[in-house]
Design goal:
The chain is α/β, with parallel strands linked by helices and 165 residues long. The chain has a single domain, classed as Diaminopimelate Epimerase, Chain A, domain 1 (Roll), CATH 3.10.310. 51% of the residues lie in helices and 13% in strands. The chain has eight helices and four strands; from the N terminus they run H-H-H-E-H-H-E-E-H-H-H-E. Strands 3-2-1-4 form a four-stranded mixed sheet, sandwiched between helices. Strand 2 and strand 3 form a beta hairpin. It is globular and about 50 Å long.
Length: 165
């Protein structure tokens, strides 16, 4: 692992994610996720992380590997229809990863999620974190409405609040 990356993660303050996503932004994301999930059977989780934990850095994990770890830790992999989607923002590395559980991955190609990731990265490069996040939720909503439309028994299985590390 490049030493420059490790140093960057060590010197960036842990409050970076709270600065990028302030209280009103987090509430807007939560509301967008709640409204989204009323229209399909998918379950969205939004995670933004400033510096990665030292032990994760020591393992040399990429943003994708960290997203995979959080996918399991946050229960995104435990939905009844395997319809969880994690939107992971790694602020220090300037990477976004979207992981979909196997129920969705069987119907939606990864390149569709990757396109949303790259669009978020463009918005974030302009420091427009709120717009980038809300646009991503909107795009994910449209995909999930097609492949996992809502049913009468559409329950909310995961917390809609963004998680910041």
């Amino acid at each position: 692992m490049p030493l420059a990356r490790i140093l960057k993660h060590l010197v960036i303050p842990s409050w970076m994610s709270r600065r990028a996503f302030r209280g009103a932004d987090r509430e807007a994301i939560r509301a967008a996720i709640a409204a989204s999930e009323a229209t399909h059977r998918g379950e969205l989780r939004f995670v933004a992380e400033g510096p990665m934990p030292v032990l994760i850095l020591a393992k040399g994990w990429s943003a994708r590997q960290r997203a995979t770890d959080l996918f399991g830790r946050l229960g995104v992999a435990n939905t009844r229809e395997a319809s969880g989607v994690l939107i992971y923002v790694q602020l220090v590395d300037r990477r976004v990863e979207i992981l979909a559980d196997h129920g969705i991955a069987a119907r939606v190609a990864q390149h569709e999620w990757d396109r949303i990731c790259r669009e978020m990265e463009v918005a974030f490069a302009q420091r427009d974190y709120r717009r980038g996040a809300l646009d991503a939720v909107d795009r994910a909503t449209r995909i999930l409405q097609i492949h996992f439309p809502a049913r009468a028994d559409n329950i909310n299985e995961l917390d809609d609040r963004p998680v910041l590390y």
